Amino acid sequence: MDKQCKINAFRTGLAQFVTFEEDEWEILSQHLSFSTLKKKDHFVVEGKVCDYIGFIVQGSARHYHVKDGQEITGYFYFENELVSAYKSFLKRVPSINFIQALEKTELVLIAYADLQKMLNHPILALKMERFGRLVAEHHICCYEDRVTAFITQSPEERYTMLEKTAKDIFQRVPQHFIANFLGITPVSLSRIRKRTLLH
Amino acid sequence: MDKQCKINAFRTGLAQFVTFEEDEWEILSQHLSFSTLKKKDHFVVEGKVCDYIGFIVQGSARHYHVKDGQEITGYFYFENELVSAYKSFLKRVPSINFIQALEKTELVLIAYADLQKMLNHPILALKMERFGRLVAEHHICCYEDRVTAFITQSPEERYTMLEKTAKDIFQRVPQHFIANFLGITPVSLSRIRKRTLLH
DNA sequence: CGAAAACGTTAACAAAAGATAAGGACTTTA
DNA sequence: TAAAGTCCTTATCTTTTGTTAACGTTTTCG
Question: pLDDT tens for residues B107-123?
Fold first, then answer.
């Protein structure tokens, strides 16, 4: 996949937050880099500071923790979404988790240092601040829903909801990752699926 | 409690995100309003759009959902913290939960319309965008930890962690609210406490 | 002050989830 | 292509949690 194609996809994807004018885009696009992850390559590893925000042009990834030698998947990322270990990226602290490609994945990257430059660039600053704010606000809304689900719903209800709102995820992601995402074990998810099939 | 005292507390509290210069503060402070909630007064109710972000000068509040006629407490707010139903506030949609004062609570408020004015004010815009971004980023980091706890920890581990990192909460908040916050029933929390006392 | 409400604990039972292991189907890869 | 690995299901057993209800204490409020 060539760079221009990736850049175009990125620009289109950003439009849900902010639209950049030609002169702005000129500058911004000079601060981008590109990456292709093979399946199982890592975008971030535990213990290292995450230096990039990535935009997924094609492919997917998962976010996971290692606890007692076991991997626990906490989140998925798909096309046209931003991916990063935000706390690590924003606070410059070592990541407590991994982010790994689920398949061959094409990314557009913004490095932390470049982002800071743009936030201090006279022409770009205001729009970049707004962009950052809107992205962060978007994530807050997603997180609100996710925490609400853990607080107010049973595992079975969370499964049913996921099945209703993002059925395709079951075609793209191994079921035991989804179980982790729902906060239960793979065995338990298998039981819930059987149980809910028979009403 | 008089206004000037509240304004000062607010300015100090904001310093963790952004510091405003005199001329900026001059403008910003004209867009503030003030409120005192009695115990059990609501800051937001389900079904209504949340029109304010509040800064708690004194007091505390809880965030709760009503499901099957039962209240489920999802979060607490204390002094020097911002409180709002963010998704409702940011996206202008009806809130799906309530926010209620746990005791007499003194607030400094920013109305949505005023915030928008400031975000478009030539002098304030950049700093307000940054302020908004940093607040949102701060919340993202909090949410990351909270979701991680649900994914990787058992209820007992979440209780132990809370007891270690925020012991004072048990003195300020009824235990059955904390149970909800941990994602379990009050009866279950009572059992966990007994169990963990005997090592 | 006194009645009502709120709160935490405990008990008993049912339901659900975790842990472990085994088996079969499907992929990957050497 | 054969072997190894991955993945999902199922079964069994244990542990934990949910549900409901009762009890005593404390707090709230008319």
Answer: 999 999 999 999 999 99
